[in-house]
């Protein structure tokens, strides 16, 4: 992929036809497509947009604050300029974003690595800043005259999802600031913080009785200290003294490391300005926590103890650990839970299945509860309660997850097929 970047606008070259893969692999790319697919009124236009995007009909994409533009060609070669608009953040919102981002160094580091961590989006939302678009936020404009999303603007959105997968700064540019401006504002904040830290010497104290008589208010408390960049290192248990009977030094050392990491996370969350407005996380069950700890990669002896304590067999525990690594608690719930799809959830699922494939390309699916199995093939789709589709494959007589949640069933099935080395 090539791109020209002058700070205020970036232009990305057209891509060749795309086959055998979904349009978004990152969770933020799928969120972008969710805003498109949840807000579009005509499923047929989404289907046409996917077809054009896969055929390589989207030309060079220009991204600038508030707008993304490309020329999209119909099957007969007719060219249409398509634009998708997204509201820019105000200067005051950018200031709040900068304040929030520097509070946790991991946010900036993740962006520089080309990732958009979920905590960054959640923390920004708690500060009143919506980075990702929501329902109705992607406003279409097209020369074809359509008043809602047409196949051309939908194709442009699917193409944008591929760009967002590779560079989340593209989204920040649409919100009003390119990568250079964002990083310069963070550096400026750091310089201002350094100057503030070297302020004048501390003033002399004031007698309490005098202050009370003068009616002075107490000064504001000092800001809370910032946590270290990472958790501390637990004490070493590698000594010449033999451990007491029943004590496993390796397991104890791992527990101490995990406890330090969790304490560091909790402290970082507690020091956020919006901490009191965030819902507390649900505590995991003993069985779930065993899977979480095993996903951290302990030695075989510790892993066997966790498997025994989880209530699962060895093979089932390995599959559960695999699910956790793909999607955490949500993926583990999809692995374990089978629930009847009914009402609105069923209507949305059926609509997604009806529009995910071109005419005559939809595979034969056998439904049971929230699971759709491909007839005559070792592939299965599982629906979670949030509308995400999870790809599964049969291995050794057991269904195992092979990827994270996708926004549509076709993408999930493509992931399952790719994991098997098959053509989707």
Describe the protein.
α2 crosses α6 (151-166), α3 packs across α8 (179-197) and α11 (286-294) runs antiparallel to α12. This protein is an alpha+beta fold. It starts with a strand and ends with a helix. The protein is 46% helix and 12% strand. A hairpin with a 5-residue loop joins β9 and β10 (389-395). It has helices spanning 27-39, 43-54, 91-103, 105-112, 118-126, 151-166, 169-174, 179-197, 208-214, 249-270, 286-294, 300-310, 314-336, 343-355, 409-420, and strands spanning 3-5, 10-12, 61-64, 67-73, 79-85, 139-142, 365-368, 371-374, 379-383, 389-395, 398-401. The protein contains 15 helices and eleven strands. The strands form two sheets. It has a six-stranded antiparallel beta sheet. The protein has a five-stranded antiparallel beta sheet with strand order 7-8-9-10-11.
List the helices and strands and how they pair.
Layout: E1 3-5, E2 10-12, H1 27-39, H2 43-54, E3 61-64, E4 67-73, E5 79-85, H3 91-103, H4 105-112, H5 118-126, E6 139-142, H6 151-166, H7 169-174, H8 179-197, H9 208-214, H10 249-270, H11 286-294, H12 300-310, H13 314-336, H14 343-355, E7 365-368, E8 371-374, E9 379-383, E10 389-395, E11 398-401, H15 409-420
Antiparallel strand pairs: 1-2, 2-3, 3-4, 4-5, 5-6, 7-8, 8-9, 9-10, 10-11
Question: Which key terms come to mind for this protein?
Answer:
424 residues, alpha+beta, six-stranded antiparallel sheet, five-stranded antiparallel sheet, disordered N terminus
Compact description:
This protein has 424 residues and is α+β, with helices and mostly antiparallel strands. It has helices at 27-39, 43-54, 91-103, 105-112, 118-126, 151-166, 169-174, 179-197, 208-214, 249-270, 286-294, 300-310, 314-336, 343-355, 409-420; strands spanning 3-5, 10-12, 61-64, 67-73, 79-85, 139-142, 365-368, 371-374, 379-383, 389-395, 398-401.
